[in-house]
Specification:
The structure holds two protein chains of two kinds. Chain A is mostly beta strands. Chain A has no helices and eleven strands. The radius of gyration of chain A is 13 Å and the shape is globular. The chains are: A mainly beta, B mainly beta. Chains A and B meet through strand 4, strand 5 and strand 10 of A and strand 5 and strand 10 of B.
């Protein structure tokens, strides 16, 4: 079964440091999403890509977060500087079309200390 | 009003019980609906799509009521392995926009 690859699985960083997460979607999936999930909440969209273009980044805190998908395949999400409130699970997902649902990667669990 | 609302639970049921979850959504133009399952500290996984005519997959039945804007998930003959959080998911009205997730309903099945 095709998978969405994410790394690292776990990341502990000090506040004010920079941190980056990587995602490789299922081959052929043009749409890629980054979600953030705080414990006890549902996933919330940070950014959506269609190929290399950003479709929706309205909920991305752009003063500290950035995302790119330069060649329309894998993607990187960066936080600089990290804050305590950024501690969460960061999930990447890809889709062949929203009507089919998404496939999520295993996520990156970020702890900011 | 939040876009997708679920009773967070927890629902605590014995093995073999039947349990039902409901979810309401605010956007009447929403087109696609799903239930996802999420185990503790794992990623969400697609459980089933929800069709207008309703659909069944083994012990799981999903139904959609567009008039009342709610979705339901029924689990029959609960197993210990059904213990998880169940996320209700809808698409907003704009084609190509991202799925919106509810906060999830937690189910705990005990022996």
């Amino acid at each position: 079964e095709a998978e969405v690859a994410q790394s690292p699985r776990y990341k502990i960083t000090e506040k004010s440091q920079a941190v980056a997460f990587w995602c490789d979607p299922i081959s052929g999936h043009a749409t890629l999403y980054w979600y953030r999930q705080i414990l006890g909440q549902g996933p919330e969209l940070l950014v959506q890509f269609q190929d290399e273009s950003v479709v929706d980044d309205s909920q991305l805190p752009k003063d500290r977060f950035s995302a790119e998908r330069l060649k329309g395949v894998d993607s990187t999400l960066k936080i600089q500087p990290a804050e305590l409130g950024d501690s969460a699970m960061y999930l990447c997902a890809s889709s062949a079309g929203a009507e089919f649902g998404y496939t999520f990667g295993s996520g990156t669990r970020l702890t900011v200390v | 009003r939040k876009e997708v609302e679920q009773d967070p639970g927890p629902f605590n049921v014995p093995e073999g019980a039947t349990v039902a979850f409901n979810c309401t959504y605010s956007n009447s133009a929403s087109q696609s609906f799903f239930w996802y399952r999420q185990d503790c500290r794992k990623e969400p996984k697609l459980l089933m799509s929800v069709y207008s005519s309703g659909n069944e997959d083994g012990r799981f039945t999903a139904q959609l009521n567009r008039a009342s804007q709610y979705i339901s998930l029924l689990i029959r003959d609960s197993k210990l392995s059904d213990s998880a959080t169940y996320l209700c998911v809808v698409t907003p009205n704009q084609a190509g926009t991202a799925l919106i997730f509810g906060k999830g309903t937690t189910l705990s099945v005990s022996s």
